[in-house]
Amino acid sequence: MILIGVILLILGWVFSLAILTYIGVALVVIGAVLWILGAVGRPIAGRKVWY
Which residues is 47 bridged to in the sheet? Predict the structure, then answer.
């Protein structure tokens, strides 16, 4: 999710499309929050471990 967000951020800046930039920022933030929650062992969506 973070990778897709970064790609959308770059595409938004290159093509000057604000909507891609906003979506990219949102995906990066959401991905970072989920990554941090998963790293500290907090269960996400009822699961502690994803296989």
Answer: 44
Task: With CA atoms as reference, report the closest residue to 24 among 7, 41, 37.
Answer: 7
Q: Is 36 exposed, middle or buried (0-12, 13-18, 19+ CB in 10 A)?
A: exposed
Q: What pTM does this model have?
A: 0.75
The token pair at 34 is 């989920």
Rounded to the nearest 10 degrees, the angle between the axes of helix 18-39 and helix 2-15 is: 160
Q: Give dist(CA 18, CA 24) in Å, integer.
A: 10
- pLDDT tens for 1-51 read 889 999 999 999 999 999 999 999 999 999 999 888 878 876 666 665 655
